[in-house]
Design a protein that fits this description.
Blueprint lengths: L36 E6 L8 H8 L11 E6 L3 H9 L5 E5 H7 L12 E10 L5 E4 L9 H7 L4 E4 L4 H13 L5 E4 L2 H9 L5 E4 L3 H7 L4 E5 H4 L3 E8 H6 L1 H19 L4 H10 L6 H9 L8 E5 L5 H16 L18 H9 L7 E4 L9
Helix pairs in contact: 1-10, 2-3, 3-13, 4-5, 7-12, 10-14, 11-12
Amino acid sequence: MRSHFFLGTSVAVAFGALTAPAALAEVNFGKTGEKVSLIVGYQPYYTESWSGVVNNGKSFWKKYLPEGSTVEFQVGLQGSVIVNAMTGEKQHIGYMGDMPSIASTFRNIKERGGTDIRIVGVAGTSKQQCNIFLVRNDAPKFENGVDAVKWMDGKITSAPHGACTDRFARIAFEKAGIKPSRYLNQNIEVITTNFRARKLDAAAIWEPTATKIEKAGLARRAASGEDFDTLDGALIVMLNDLIKQRPDVVEAWMEGELDSQLFLADMNNAGEVSKMAEAQTEQIDRKVLWGALYGSDVAPGSVKLELDFVVNDRVKGLLKDATAFLYSLPKRPAAAEQIRDGGVDDSIARKVLEKRGLTSPLGVIKAQPMSAFKE
């Protein structure tokens, strides 16, 4: 299995700038029971979707896919990059945040590329994986996250616009009743650079970058979705060509996904998970990676990740709210206020869950003190 970076002119590709190739011919995935070759876009730089990291590292998929099948995992630095690859049918399965996942379901529209992509499962949900505010180190000490956001009134703030961070930031600004002097559209690299140069007062960013910036001493954590009761999520999407032609492959993949989420949920595996994440990323210390999913000295005991697996009522609420937000944006990455009929199909994931005698969520990861990390 090879991992590749999809490097464009900018890591933070705005949804409105996504390419729209002409409609492509249906991909042939073979007949039921035949070996299959899959290309999977995933995000080791987005902690909430780390079930893809585990499935890559542990190769759980080999237990379930037809003998002789191959899987190539390709790294996408942001979900929109994976959406582009899937729209061009260069990838067949994608792991990404809620916003690009929702946007991908509207790609079946002719002028948006004509590629039918559907949400088939949930990698995880949280209130503090994508929904995190960092502030400059010399900011005042705040009693709570709401006070921290109120302090941002008239300040220079930033987030990758169109991503889950953007939705969180705008919700937080509205609930706190404030307006920053500037709310910049910046990718994670520029945000890191600007905190280092002391050009930013605050920024919304996702894990593990948030923990990396914090541990590097460039900024400190001040608020999260916990302070504003705002959920974020990571989803699993697939080409409908694959779903139609090879439900056996979809079921096999979700079996491996289930194993991956159960592995993630077991704290006894935390060390091994951080090692896999370190092997699949660059220039991120393993303790930072461990802390992004399993640790917190700010809020020990808080939920770092819930492994929902299927689109339960909690996730349905997230999808409804996030779709309405995307539809409200000027370039409208979502073509309607609600996901189109058929845009979400977790029926096979539910079948796998029932077959195993399990229920959603599969598990909940709660933050341990950072002192619990072991080399």
